[in-house]
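Quick one, probably user error.
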């Protein structure tokens, strides 16, 4: 699925749904016993979340007001539920609790990846540009970066690999990832 599509991730709660305008954070699980695997997928999920924050100019430490509720720009199912904006689902805390992580760790780790000073919530540098990536775009370094991340995660972006061209294989890799 392209980045500008919204999957129905957290359901709906008594105050509405967090499915519009936020990053719903999830990571692929094993049997919940392999710490090495956990830390690897945690890091990859933070890197991808940082990429999306940069792409859509989302402050990972930010909040928005929705239906009278302050909502973090990055949250998980449990956060959505506790805010009345999603169904009751414990993901990711059933795994995070085993390895000492919280969604606050995620937001801070994503901010660090983006070069945001977590004490001042401001960029360390201002060299951030935002661009919507779409199928058919060619020779684009942002698409190349996206493809490299997808390849690192084990997805096939086509026979030429990370070539900066957003074609059918890259689109399929994104949809499969999502």
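Nope, works fine. Designed sequence:
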């Amino acid at each position: 699925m392209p980045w500008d599509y919204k999957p129905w991730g957290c359901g709906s709660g008594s105050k509405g749904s967090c499915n519009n305008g936020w990053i719903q954070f999830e990571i692929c699980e094993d049997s919940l016993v392999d710490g090495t695997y956990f830390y690897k997928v945690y890091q990859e999920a933070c890197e991808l979340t940082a990429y999306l924050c940069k792409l859509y100019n989302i402050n990972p430490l930010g909040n928005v007001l929705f239906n009278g509720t302050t909502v973090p720009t990055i949250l998980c199912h449990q956060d959505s539920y506790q805010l009345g904006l999603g169904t009751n689902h414990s993901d990711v805390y059933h795994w995070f609790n085993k390895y000492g992580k919280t969604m606050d760790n995620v937001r801070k780790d994503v901010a660090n990846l983006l070069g945001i000073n977590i004490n001042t919530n401001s960029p360390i540098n201002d060299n951030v540009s935002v661009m919507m990536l779409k199928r058919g775009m060619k020779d684009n370094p942002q698409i190349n970066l996206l493809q490299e991340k997808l390849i690192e995660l084990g997805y096939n972006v086509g026979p030429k690999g990370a070539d900066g061209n957003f074609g059918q294989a890259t689109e399929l890799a994104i949809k499969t990832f999502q």
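The chain has a mean pLDDT of 81.
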